[in-house]
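User: Hey, my collaborator sent me this sequence without any context and asked if I could get a structure. I don't really work with proteins. Can you help?
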Amino acid sequence: MGQQPNLLAPEQSPQHRFGYTLRELRQVRRLSLRGLADKAFMSHSKLQKWENGDRSPKDRAEVELIDSLLRAGGILVDLWERIGPAVSAPSRVSVSVPHVSEASVGLATAASQQAASDHEGIFVPARLRDGSVVFVALDRRAMLRGGLGIGATAALGVGTPAVADSAMPGLARPARSAAAYSDTPVEHLQRARRLLIDNDNLLGPRHAIEAALEHIEAIKDLRRDSKGVDRHALMELQTQYAEFTAWLYQDLGNFESAQFWLDRAFQWSHTVGDGDLTSYVMARKAQLAGETRDLVDVVDLAEAAQRMARPRSRLAAVARTYESYGHALRGESTDSERAIDDVRNSLDRVSGDTTPWGVWLTEQYVEVHRAQGLEVLGKHAEAAEVFTSAIKSLPDGYHRDRGVYLARAAVAHAGAGSPEQAAAVGLQALTVARDTGSGRIVRELARLDKSLIPWQRQAEVADFRTHFDAVLAHES
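Assistant: No problem. I've predicted the 3D structure and written it out in structure-token form, which is a compact way to encode the shape of the chain:
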């Protein structure tokens, strides 16, 4: 006989409110506790403790994942935030941290437009009264204060792009069948992944995340009835989708979710037994550590990836690239330059490597990372020159990546004392940020905005800062 759920008093504590709401949402979605645990790749006992109010979640990424699977529109995240110490904020926006945060960001022309079209409680860049730019969470509390109960809100699909699963409560979705595909399921989903990758660079990550998550679920459904070679191929594809999902969250600026999916990809790559894939995911962990400016882990992770990679392989060079940036973050100029030179000298050798991973390791990619290291080391003029040259050589279709590099080049121009050029390049990057919603671009532009304050009366600088300010929410 299964364990009976605790009778919770939602008003007793924020922890009980979270557990009560989680249980009600799960039941509205007609999911068993074990079924939800399987979808989230989490343990049944952990979710049971959350629902019973015995333990509160420690990892924001896990709460966001459960919120997404239950299509809760951010309600669970909001309740989880109330469990810890309250963060006071004088305004109607919920400020996550006192600087540019590493949370998911959806770039909007105005917070009111975003709130009207998207009930998910996403993060947006905002200007505080002191002039600083932060990422803030749009207030979701109105969803809890309205006349609808939490269960009714979920049943109506608030914040849910697709509500087909709940439109007919008595009808369960049929299991996926391999026979439904004109080719093999693996080939179908491989093509879908390639298409999502291409669209990501043109349109940004927001449009691809939901599809990537749905495809992971589809692969998991198919694995249940697969055996042998087919099951192994599906597991490998599931790992590839997990790594891609991590990248999408990374570009949004949601580093916790990116880390969550990289951890999943790393675990699953061992299940697959693909050494190249495992070393690639480890290299990606080093890259993410560099993005978060983790001075402790970035070099160690990159060195670990090199040890795992085949000697003198492309993946070893990819990891060495991220190691170079890690040394720059630590102020180790000689080590950084030596590492990037090693990568540049290896490009001809690794070009014939047959691994599908890291195929974007080109001269332009390496030069961009060299410029990134130079900028961190304070060699702004040289960094700006290298960025400019590399951007001109980028292939067509790298729209979002071009925007990231333009934003970083603009920061380098400002550091080199060229405010007019910095502002002009910053406006170009802002256009790409509007197109793609890339949190990485917004973070760089926030750095640029601050660095241009000494020249704020100059016409070009004022123009950039006015246009950048227009895409931000503002503290009341």
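In plain terms: Residues 408 and 444 are 6 Å apart (CA to CA). You can pass these tokens on to your collaborator as they are.
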